Amino acid sequence: MLVGWLALNFLPIHAVPQPQYHSVRPSESTSVSIGLAKHCSKAVPISAAEFHSRQDKLAQTLHALNATAYIAEPGADALYYANLSMSSWKLSERPLLLVITPDASDSELVKAKVSILTPKFETARARLLPIAFQDVTFLEWAEEANPYEMVKPALAEADAAGTIFVDGHARHFIVDGLQSAFPTATVKSSPTEIRQLRERKSKAELELMKCANEATVLAIRETRKKMYIGIRESETSALIEAAFKGAGLKDGGCLTLFGENAALPHGSGADRKLGVHDFALLDCGASLHGYPSDVTRTFALNDSQISAEQKRIWNAVWGAQNIAFTTAEAGVVAKRIDKAARLFLSLNGLDQYFTHRLGHGIGLEGHEDPYINGGSETVLKTGHSFSDEPGVYIEGDIGVRLEDCFYIADDGQPVYLTAGVGGVATSPWEP
Ligand SMILES: *[C@@H]1O[C@H](CO)[C@@H](O)[C@H](O)[C@H]1NC(C)=O
Ligand SMILES: *[C@@H]1O[C@H](CO)[C@@H](O)[C@H](O)[C@H]1NC(C)=O
Ligand SMILES: *[C@@H]1O[C@H](CO)[C@@H](O)[C@H](O)[C@H]1NC(C)=O
Question: What span is annotated as the signal peptide, if there is one (predicted)?
Fold first, then answer.
C-alpha cells in the first residue's frame, strides 16, 4: 500500500501505460515494412569536417581548463577525435599515442594541434592510418628511447607544471610513463567537461545510431518469421547473423535465450530448443560505421501457447520501459529514471526480479558513460543517448527483457532510436 501511495506521488500515474494488444495475437501486423537489406545503404560515415571540429572543440575545452594536452591510445576516444580505432592499430607493448594540444596563437579561435607518437620503425604504417586531421606531426621513438620523452616537442612551453588529461581507457603503464616524463605535471583522466564532448551525440552520429538500431529491430522481426517451435538457440542466432550480414552491418549477433534460460541475463551456455510454452529473448547488436546498436525483444511465435502469468510479466516490463522513457528528459537526474521503472515493477510485485541497472550510455562503445542506475547523479542533457532495458528474471522459470535505446533531442524530450520502424514492441507477438 505504502509503495502504491509513493508511486502515485512519484510517477505520472495518469500516464501509466498499458499495452494495447489483442488478448491472444494481433489480427494484422502493424509493423512498418522496410526492406532490411537496403535499410542502411545510404548511411554516411562521420565526415572529415566533423572530426576536425571535434578536435577543435577539445582544444577549446583544454584551453578553458588551462590544460596542456589530451593524450589517448587507439580506442573509442581516439576513434572519436581522430578516426583512430583499435581495429586500425592493435594495442601492443609499444605505445602509439594521439596527442592533441590547444594552439591559442590566434586568441580569437583556439585550434587543435594534432600529433601522433609512433614507434620509429612503424612510422610508415602509422602514416597510412585513416586518421582524420588537417595537419599532423609524427613524433617517432626509437627502440632504445623512452617513448614518453618524445612527447615533449608536442607540448613545448607549457609542459612544466600543466595538466595532461589522458583518455580514461589508457593503460596504466602509459599513464605512469607520461607522469615520469613530466614529473611536475599533473597527469590524470579526463574530467566531465571533456568526457561530455563524446557523450553528447551529434546529428551525424544519431543518424548512424538510428539506422543501426532500426535495422536491428527489422532483423529481429525477420528472424521471428523464420522461427518455429523446436528451433535451437544457436540456429536462431545463425539466422539473425545472416540477416545482419545481408544488411551490411558489422559484428552482428544476438544473445538468444529460450524459456527459463532467459532468466540468466547473460545466458546459460546451453543450446535449448524453443518449447511451445516459451518466450524467446533476443538481445542483439550490430555496428554501422563504428556505431553499435543494442535492442532486446522477448516474444512468442504465432504457434506458442503463452500463459496469463507470462503475459502479465511481459506487460509489466513493457510498462516499466515506457515509464522510464516518459520520465527521461533534459534536466532529469538519471537515477530517477531507474527508480521510476523499478517502482512500476514494484506495483506489479516484480521489482525484486529486476536485478540490473536500467540502462547504459551508448555511442562508439556499446556500453559507455554515463549509466542509468539507482545511484547515478548524471543530469541528462541534449544529445545524451542511453539504453532503456528493464527486465524480470525468475530463476528456473522465465526471463523477460525489453530494450530500446533513446536520445535526448534538442527540445529536451526523449526519442527512441528505433522510432523509425515503430519503436518499442507492441505485444509479445509484435516485437
Ligand atoms: C575513418 O576510417 C575508416 C576506416 O576505418 C575509413 O573508411 C574512413 O574513410 C575514415 N574517415 C575519414 C574521415 O578519414
Ligand atoms: C585558468 O587560468 C586562468 C588564469 O590564470 C584562471 O583565471 C582560471 O580560473 C583558470 N581556469 C581553470 C578552469 O582552472
Ligand atoms: C502470425 O500472425 C500474424 C497475424 O495473424 C500474421 O500476420 C503473420 O504473418 C503470422 N506470422 C507467421 C510467421 O505465420
Answer: 1-15
Residue 80 near ligand 1, beta carbon < 6 Å: no
* 334 Cα: distance to centroid of ligand 2 (angstroms): 30
Beta-carbon-side half-sphere exposure of residue 192 (alpha carbons within 13 Å): 5
The pLDDT value recorded for residue 241 is 95
Domains and CATH numbers, the chain: 2-30+201-421 (3.90.230.10), 48-199 (3.40.350.10)
Give the rounded distance of the alpha carbon of 11 from its chain centre.
27
Cβ neighbours around 296 below 10 Å, total: 26
Alpha carbons 18 and 335: distance in angstroms, whole number: 23
The span from the CA of 144 to the CA of 241, in Å, is 47
Angle (deg, nearest 10), helices 334-347 and 2-10: 140
pLDDT given for residue 17 in this prediction: 58
Residue of the CA atom closest to atom 10 of ligand 2: 66
User: What cell does 184 get?
Assistant: 611536475
Q: CA geometry: angle at 408 spanning 404 and 414, to 5°?
A: 55
Q: Is the CB of 55 under 6 A from ligand 1?
A: no
- Residue 161: the pLDDT is 78
Residues of the chain with pLDDT under 50: 1-14, 22-33
Q: Write down the pTM of the prediction.
A: 0.90
State whether residue 104 is helix, strand or coil. Answer: coil
CB-ligand 2 contact for 65 (6 Å cutoff)? yes
**Pocket probe mutation, ligand 1, options 47, 51, 83, max atoms within 8 Å of Cβ:** 83
What is the separation of C-alpha 338 from the centre of its chain, rounded to a whole number of angstroms? 17
Q: Under a CB-based contact definition with an 8 Å cutoff, are residues 293 and 404 in contact? A: no
